[in-house]
Specification:
Helix content: under 10%
Distance between the termini: 26 Å
CATH topology of the largest domain: Beta-galactosidase, Chain A, domain 5
CATH architecture of the largest domain: Distorted Sandwich
Number of domains: 3
Structural class: mainly beta
Largest sheet: 8 strands, antiparallel
Number of helices: 3
């Protein structure tokens, strides 16, 4: 039996009442997202073309280019292909089970993409053909090792790592893997080993960080040498990527990369500064009308060392910037109270200072050679002026520095976990699709199945497995972000009210219902799981989301009731760019999760178009005043 203490229930009731008061008094639609500053934050990555196998060296007959793949998550090694391009597939056989190598040779590299691994299958990505990031079906493994999904593999023959510490692999910090047959995302920053002028290794290779399905599972993992089953002995500065092809079926898509040359950087020369007496608040500043307080030469934008203390002022930096290679460069400025960046007398970034601490960025094309740079800074109060950049084969760094920033480990999370026999509910803010949602409940079940629910439009926003949540941003410092952060890979569902107004029998031309006041009540069932209640027109809805009987996935149970039905109604149970009915009667939703319908009110599901998006619908309330829909979410 799951229990809540009285304080928790009172807090949730207060949260609901506050939510409705805010909606009523402000009269704003709940789906209005808070205003965000849209800005350039990164240069685009290069695509590894998967139109053909031309990007790879002498691939064996076990490698194919196809349009899509399907895998039954309950069948070992299941892999079905669809014609087309864009997906790299390995299907090994007794006659062909070769590894595959890229034409690309890399040193430092940032690599991201997606892979699909069938049940029981095994592969791996070897950076420089030597250092393995493990790919394995490790779904629901509670105690992962280096051998499991996301592990950094060990060195040497079996057993050697037991006696040689530097040969040991590294297990992922958390098992962030999804069910077999789903597309899983990886994003890795790898640093190649370093060598002196005589070819002696002076630094080991290192995985700076590894993210799997959006979760940081490794940070600063040093690899002292090639891991087991590496393609090459010894170590070097440049070598190809290798994907393991001799173990089991695997597929890849959307592979992107950036390569970095640590010797390249922008160089500042003849840099000067001028400090002006300035007490205004308006930009742009006419420096010709201001009194000069100080001037001189400098080699950085550290205004705290240059400015006069306890005075309002403006500073103008002028320098020559030496560009080592032609291409696109991204610049960002962080100027507490505003300022502008000019290159060759063209305004690149304008920062009016309305948002202290916010970075503003823009991309410009620069040819190799010397360019004129000017940075103006209007202090008013608080001294902070920084310029950052990224360029062709140049990793993100501060302008004026010759090296990328030192690795900074993530802060330790402030963990919240359900106690034995109790569900944990956190009311607050949650990130969804890059936006902050302000009226959400995040629910952590003792069974290790968790979700976030939007009270404004009765939407299941995302769901994930144990561990539950990091609430550091809600409590540490001033709690500026106030976000609850899942501690494992969270699958985002397409938000929308689970009711559609049906216009005709084939469900085309229908429209989503709207909630004027969102969820109006939270009750608790006999197991004390929360039940969300809301009303759409004359239809009353109860929405129960709970762990399945086996505790492996989520079951959603929707109950509809209407005594005065004005329109035919359909239940919306999924929306996505891709909804596929598989041969095992599961729906695969955008490759992210599976949906299995358990109870459909005696009606056949229909995949329809709603506002240009595929929508999975079940007709309800045609001749009855009561209907129930129940389905499972598997990931």
């Amino acid at each position: 039996m799951i229990k809540f203490n009285l304080l928790s229930k009172l807090y949730i009731i207060f949260f609901i009442l506050s939510f409705h008061f805010a909606l009523t008094s402000c009269k704003k639609s709940n789906d209005v997202k808070e205003e965000q500053v849209q800005d350039k934050t990164s240069l685009p990555m290069q695509n590894l073309s998967l139109v053909s196998l031309d990007e790879f060296r002498s691939p064996g007959e076990n490698w194919f280019i196809t349009g899509d793949v399907y895998s039954d998550y309950q069948k070992e090694g299941s892999m079905q292909l669809r014609d087309g391009t864009g997906v790299l597939v390995n299907i090994p056989s007794d006659e062909a089970r070769n590894n595959i190598f890229t034409v690309l040779e890399h040193g430092d590299i940032e690599l991201k993409g997606e892979f699909l691994v069938p049940k029981g299958s095994n592969s791996g990505i070897y950076f420089q053909g030597r250092y393995e990031f493990q790919i394995l079906d490790s779904w629901k493994e509670s105690n992962p090792t280096f051998f499991d999904m996301g592990g950094i593999f060990e060195r040497g023959a079996r057993g050697m790592a037991d006696t040689i510490p530097e040969y040991r692999g590294r297990a992922p910090d958390v098992n962030a893997s999804l069910a077999p047959g789903l597309w899983q995302k990886f994003h890795i920053l790898f640093r190649a080993p370093r060598f002196d002028g005589e070819g002696n290794k002076v630094e080991h290779a290192r995985f700076e960080w590894v993210e799997l399905n959006g979760v940081r599972i490794h940070e600063n993992v040093e690899v002292t040498g090639p891991t087991r089953a590496a393609a090459f002995e010894g170590e070097t500065m440049l070598a190809p990527l290798m994907i393991q092809g001799d173990h089991g079926p695997v597929a890849f898509r959307n592979i992107k990369f950036k390569t970095y040359d640590p010797s390249r950087h922008l160089r500042l020369e003849e840099m000067t500064y001028t400090v002006y007496d300035y007490t205004g608040y308006h930009t742009p500043v006419n420096f010709d009308t201001l009194e000069i307080l100080d001037r001189g030469a400098t080699n950085s934008f550290n205004v705290s060392e240059l400015s006069l203390s306890n005075q309002n002022y403006a500073i103008r930096f002028i320098a020559k910037v030496v560009v080592p290679i032609s291409g696109d460069y991204l610049f960002q400025t962080e100027l507490n109270q505003g300022g502008n960046l000019y290159i060759n007398e063209e305004l690149v970034i304008e920062n009016k200072g309305e948002i202290p601490g916010r970075r503003f960025g823009n991309i410009v094309h620069l040819e190799v050679g010397v360019h004129h740079l000017e940075l103006s800074y209007f202090r008013i109060r608080g001294a902070l002026a920084s310029v950052f950049y990224e360029g062709p084969e140049i990793e993100w760094r501060q302008l004026g520095s010759t090296t990328p920033p030192d690795f900074q480990p993530s802060e330790e999370p402030l963990r919240v976990e359900p106690n034995a026999g109790r569900t944990e509910i956190i009311a607050g803010f949650a990130n969804y699709d890059g936006q902050k949602r302000t009226h959400t409940l995040s629910v952590g079940h003792a069974e290790g199945i968790n979700y976030t629910y939007d009270l404004g439009n009765a939407s299941l926003l995302k769901f994930w497995r144990t561990p539950f949540a990091d609430v550091q941003q809600m409590w540490q410092g001033r709690g500026n972000e106030q976000l609850i952060v899942p501690l494992n890979a969270a699958v985002e569902a397409r938000e929308a009210v689970p009711i559609v107004i049906q216009k005709n029998e084939d469900l085309n031309g229908n429209e989503l219902a709207k909630l004027e006041f969102g969820v109006n009540k939270i009750m608790y069932n006999e197991d004390e799981y929360p039940v969300f209640e809301f009303k759409v027109g004359d239809v009353n809805v109860r929405d129960l989301i709970q762990p399945s009987d086996e505790g492996d996935f989520l079951t959603r149970h929707l109950k509809f009731e209407s005594q005065n039905l004005q329109n035919n109604i359909a239940a919306r149970i999924a929306q996505s760019d891709e909804i596929e009915l598989l041969s095992n009667e599961l729906y695969r939703i955008n490759g992210k999760y599976y949906l299995k319908i358990e109870s459909n009110n005696g009606e056949d599901p229909i995949i329809s178009e709603l506002n240009g998006v595929k929508t999975l619908l079940i007709p309800i309330l045609h001749s009855s005043t009561h209907s129930e829909i129940r389905y499972n979410l598997i990931w």
